[in-house]
Each structure stands twice: as structure tokens, then as C-alpha cells.
Amino acid sequence: MDRTAPHSAPHPMVKPLPLRLHALSEPVVALVLIAAPFLLGFADIDAARNVSVAFGVLVALQAAATRWRWSLVKLVPLGVHAMTDTLLGSLLFAAPFLLEYHDDSTAAWIVHVVVGSGLIASAWATDWRTRDRALPPSRAGLAR
Fold it and tell me: By residue range, what is the domain housing residue 121?
């Protein structure tokens, strides 16, 4: 006998990446992007360096402004953060080819393609519905 109600919806797909891990990884991703041109020798390629540093700063700013426990300012909703990670990842992935620095530095395009792919994958694999969210704005000031 099937005990499922006829109007019940199937369970959504389980996402393997907890929000906490996603949130804690973002400062690391930002630091990797900002430091990569100087550590991997593509700081002299203007487009590659500028893309890497700019995207690192964007990832850091978004992490600091997302509505989750570890942010400085709780402005960006989690859904917007997920969409922005996908957009940033796509642009970072495409940047070496669109800006034509893929032939100038193997390290630059590998870093940008790998980190861009990682941003997309983490956005899609994160469980954005987790209970590990920031306190509501009315109580957020009390928790600090």
C-alpha cells in the first residue's frame, strides 16, 4: 500500500555541499585569485592579472555581504549569491578566451578555468536551504 499522498511533491535533489563549507571556502577562493598572478608569474600580463584580482575582490565582497552567519553586512540573499557565483564562474571561465590571454600564460588560463568551474560547481552543489543561515535582521544586531 502506497502511503504517499497524491498531492505530495517528490523530495528535491540532495545537494552535497553544506552552506557552511561554501561560506568558509569563499575567502580562500578570493585569496587564491588575488595572489595567483604574483605567485604563478602572470602579473606582467595586464588582462590576466586584472581579471584575477578583480574577480578575487568580487568574490570577497560578495562573501562579506551575503546573508549568512559569517558576513560583515547581511545584504545579499542566498539565492542571489548562488546566481552570482554561477555568473562569476562563467565569466571567469570564459575570460582567458574572450580577452585572448590564453596563449600568453598557461598558468593564468588554467587558474581561471579551474576556479571558474569550481565557482559554478559549488553554486550548483551547495544546499542553499540549510538552516545555517544568518539571524533575522531584527536579531542580528544582538548577536554581534
Answer: 19-129
